[in-house]
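Worked problem 6 (solution included).
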Amino acid sequence: MRLCFLVEEQYRYDGMPVEVIRRLTAWGHRVDVLRPGSSLLRLSEAVRTGSHDAWVLKTVSGGPGLTLLEAAAAVGLTTVNDARSIRGVRDKVLAAVIGRSHGLPMPVTYAAARPDALAELPETEFPLVVKPADGSSGRAVRLVPSPDRLAELAGELSGEGMLIAQPYVRNSGIDLKVYCVGGELYATERCSPLHPDRPAHERRVPLSAEIAGMAAEVGAVYGLDLYGVDVLLGPDGPVIVDVNDFPSFRLVPDAVERVARAVLELARTGGARPNMDEAASRTNGTGPRTDETGPTADGTEPGTADIIPLPEPARVSVQFRATAAGEGR
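Solution. The predicted structure is:
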């Protein structure tokens, strides 16, 4: 296969996607890399129908990479993930509207073109979490305890463009990150960037049926195949605070191999979502794989500990849907 990766400078030396590109190349696939943030691109040549089996995006949210991916999609090329789905989560205003309209448990979200507009919020909504609508990697995320503090931060936030603000969800200071790759779910926890004073090492953790169902619903709602979900365990239950296309997949076992295989599968199927029954069968360790990519570097199949098959969204419990409809998260 011939693949095109859009990789901006921030991720030029990042293991995800650099190691994925190396693995695909080692398997005999051709991978072209475009750097939209630093290169002059001849679009008539870069985006051409039939030139690549699939395009893959690993760029910052506000960078030019998504526009190029959308250009590839506009001429009929396969993209991983779907370009419209990526737009739906990278714009956090759009993501909040889509998620809440489908009953996902997401906080009430306010949007403002200028930080001083947030001063209209009543004091009862504080503390607030304020961040850029096109933010990524924790950029300019602020926990704002009071209206006075918001006024003090106005200068720092004034250059961030559209902002969103959400009432802070009380929690233990630990973020739960759920990753979906190849139709399988994995969970890790790490210290929240809003609470750097609370020590917690990053580790793999078991994934409950409730959160697994919620993560599956996220993929269905936004139309994503490779993605991550940031979850807080609040006093009223789990709350989704962010959705990421092509995240880091940190601590996912054999992440490079799993992501590489998923990219190839999506390229073959035109970006269609994976068959859930087949995905479940790949987690039980029985039967060899028959695809062209071969085994891992040490000759073994990837490990299966703590792997959760991706549930069908239709199986999400009625209790979850009722909880998701609640306010005040």
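Discussion: The radius of gyration is 20 Å.
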